[in-house]
Amino acid sequence: MGNKKNKNSEYTKQSEHARNNEETGETQNEETPVESQNQMIIDTGIVATNAKHSIHCLTVIGQIEGHYILPPQNKTTKYEHIIPALVAIEQDPDIEGLLIILNTVGGDVEAGLAISELIAGMKKPTVSIVVGGGHSIGVPLAVSAKKSFIVPSATMTIHPVRMNGLLLGIPQTLSYFDRMQERIINFVTKNSGISASRFKELMMKKDELVMDVGSVVDGDTAVKEGLIDSLGGLSDAVQCLYDMIENEDGEKRTAGKKKNIKKQSQKSRTVKNIVPSEIDEQRAVSLLNMICSGDVVYENGKFELAND
Prior knowledge:
The chain has helices spanning 2-44, 79-91, 109-120, 138-143, 171-190, 196-203, 219-224, 234-270, 281-293, and strands at 55-65, 76-78, 97-107, 126-134, 147-150, 155-158, 215-218, 230-231, 296-299, 302-305. The protein is of the alpha/beta class. It folds into two domains: 45-249, 2-enoyl-CoA Hydratase, Chain A, domain 1; 271-308, no CATH class.
């Protein structure tokens, strides 16, 4: 009997513990909305659910991590995270536009160019804004959006391609560097207002960087050089993105109306039933039947067979 009592008491304790866990769970569920909203910001980048338009905020911060893992103390942006996110944003019908916020020191050249090319190839409205800095490979990332902004206090460093580690001092290595540099120059000049010669000049400028050749341009200079489209802050970038979304919607509606008008005009042409006076009654009836069925149309003063 004593054993049964112990078992019953243990069962009672377990039941009470389970009830306590359920009550704790209910308390945690009450806190879930705030936590889920924070997690949504981290996972999706959508920071406002009741905004005028649904936009995705993509942050490119720290160092762009490429094929090699950087030390854990480095703040990095991993390209294997950004690339699938861009694909998801392009496919998601609920996301109307993309806002890219950059504060990066640069990093892996090929990873940065890969992300830049994907952003440049998106159909959805894209706007970038440089805050803090958009250095090195951050320059192609900044110009990859359809419209680019920079705050007055931000800077951008333009310098030649560099590589760390063991290098072979042979002509092929220098040729490889030169070709990689040309890829960057071509992309930047294609997606901004700066010329290739001026960009190279800024890239090879001496006596400005302590340990390297190149240039550091602030926000105002970047706009004057044609590297960045406009000087402005967050509200300017968001408003520009809203305008692009609304203009795109307006163009789609206009295109739809034109398409409907064209269809209606083609339909009205096929049912035209003008019968010349030269033909007899039997032929007129037969011709009217063909017109009504759409097999014959009347154009330029004569009847013609309709094209399929």
